[in-house]
Design brief:
Structural class: mainly beta
Strand content: over 45%
Order of helices and strands: HEEEEHEEEEEHEEEEEE
Shape: globular
Number of helices: 3
Largest sheet: 15 strands, antiparallel
Length: about 290
């Protein structure tokens, strides 16, 4: 960089690294820490004509309803560094005659962090209203001088997905995307979970198929801006060499009720620690496990 001295360059690089971490945690909020497990593989190309056709899975009970709104605030130290919102809405759109819900996740940096590395990300998914798998995924991200757009069409009964380039890939049966994984996780039954139990979600992202795995740690009471909650504690099962080297480097507390909403996420990264907490919610499907 022309005109930047050694000290200034070191400060710039520090802010850039922090912004990358912020972006990663914003994404983690949507997808319950979307980090590949060791089963991560590059997806292989396929032809729909050669793939078998599966029967639709059964109805899944939802932990959410249309018009739900969640807003999270990300803190780096004492500074509000970013914000993420997640919404659910009804849509008249159908796929193969099956009604779909529309989910939108947005992430952005705030204040001084936007001066150095502005993040404006938008993720959308259309989920099958009954079986809760994605039919279409749309990604539009702008991070500093970098931008990326994706549009995936899921052929769920064929276990395949076609990207915006017209390329078709095989995937794990009934795979989720970055946003739908967040909502699908809220359908999992944790009522009889024991410490150390691992829950898995097949996922397809960036032409890679893998299994998202989260480990149940126990139950704790957590205080946040919006109150005190009875929560379940989880950590991701991570792959070596990723941003989070150890499981305990990223910890999530989810409400111990049918909503299963993240109340607090804490992450230890190279440049310190980052915390994201729920600061606003509307139109929840069930009463929260709130203690005050």
């Amino acid at each position: 960089m022309i005109g930047v001295g050694f000290g200034e360059k070191r400060v710039w690089n520090s802010f850039w690294l922090r912004s990358v971490m912020i972006k990663s945690i914003l994404l983690a909020t949507f997808a319950l820490a979307l980090l590949p497990a060791q089963s991560q593989t590059k997806a292989t190309r396929a032809s729909l004509d050669t793939l078998p056709t599966l029967a639709y899975p059964a109805y899944r009970e939802r932990g959410f309803k249309p018009d739900e709104f969640l807003r999270f605030r990300l803190h780096y130290g004492l500074v509000d560094a970013g914000e993420a919102t997640v919404t659910v809405s009804e849509t008249g759109k159908t796929f193969h005659g099956r009604p779909a819900l529309h989910m939108v996740g947005k992430g952005r940096t705030l204040g001084a962090f936007s001066w150095f590395f502005k993040v404006e990300d938008r993720y959308e998914t259309y989920m099958d209203k009954s079986a809760l798998f994605p039919w279409e995924f749309i990604r539009d991200i702008r991070e500093g001088g970098y931008s990326k757009q994706q549009n995936y069409k899921f052929h769920q009964r064929k276990s395949a997905v076609t990207n915006q380039k017209g390329e078709t890939y095989k995937m794990l049966p009934w795979s989720q995307d970055m946003i739908s994984a967040f909502f699908y996780a809220r359908t999992l039954d944790f009522s009889n979970a024991k410490e150390g139990d691992i829950f898995s979600i097949p996922t397809f992202v960036d032409e890679e198929e893998f299994t998202l795995r989260i480990k149940y740690i126990g139950r704790e009471t957590i205080s946040s801006r919006t109150g005190k909650y009875r929560c379940m504690k989880f950590v991701p099962v991570v792959q070596e060499g990723r941003i989070f080297k150890e499981e305990e480097d990223l910890v999530m507390w989810i409400t111990d009720d049918k909503n299963k909403i993240p109340i607090l996420i804490k992450a230890s990264v190279l440049v310190g620690s980052i915390k994201m907490e729920l600061v606003e919610f509307k139109n929840l499907a069930y009463p929260l496990a709130r203690l005050d």
